[in-house]
Amino acid sequence: MNGTDTGPGGTAGRGGPREPDAAADLLALFDAWFDEAVRAGLPQPDALALATVGLDGRPAVRMVLLKGFGPDGLVFYTNYHSRKGRELAANPQAAACLWWAALDRQVRISGVVEQLAAGQSDAYFATRPRASQLAAWASPQSEPLADRAMLERRLRELEAEYRGRPIPRPAHWGGYRLVPTEIEFWQGRPHRLHDRLLYRRQTDGTWLCRRLAP
Question: Which of 36, 45, 159, 191 is the most exposed place for a label (fewest CB within 10 A)?
């Protein structure tokens, strides 16, 4: 992942996961890595690169924020009418990657994507800053704009419309859950002999762990 080989003493010298301890609990390993990224004070450790594919077969990738993870998968929120929303409606599969440069670690995830229940999206929307709530209404995400003034004018109109009262969640905005079928834990090691552990979900719901060559 790095542009240069890292020798002993560099960030890639950090010990990677070993099969005996990693295979026991996939969620615990993910939680431990994420917690370490948070405790390290990394900027936006929840920044998630999300890749989708359109009907034309062309992939697209962008950054979203990871807003939750657990046994059911990884959660993020967006505009359902955005490019990623339209692509997920047509092809509900995605790949994602968390990259923590200071720890020389990444977690790669691929799987199917499902919309969250409206109530869960409502509950999260209510916790967002008011300005972000208004922005969800103001922006026709991924659509062409004549100029920025159009967007700012729409925001002012919404500020006036909702002044002094709660802002409801737009029907076109809400959450998704990426339900993994594969998760890879990648740890940089010296001389590019990186650790790569790939978990693949089996038909019975259990996970098979395999080490991959770097």
Answer: 191
**CATH code, 187:** 2.30.110.10
Rounded CA-CA distance 147/18 in Å is: 53
The per-residue pLDDT for range 40-65, each reduced to its tens digit, is: 999 999 999 999 999 899 999 999 99
* Residue 155 located in a structural domain: no
Quick one: tokens of 117? 């229940």
In 3D, which of 212, 149, 143 has the Cα closest to residue 184? Answer: 212
Active site residues: 192
Q: In the numeric block, which tokens belong to residue 209?
A: 């762990």
Question: Is residue 154 domain-resident?
Answer: no
Distance CA 114, CA 73 (A): 10
pTM for the complete prediction?
A: 0.88
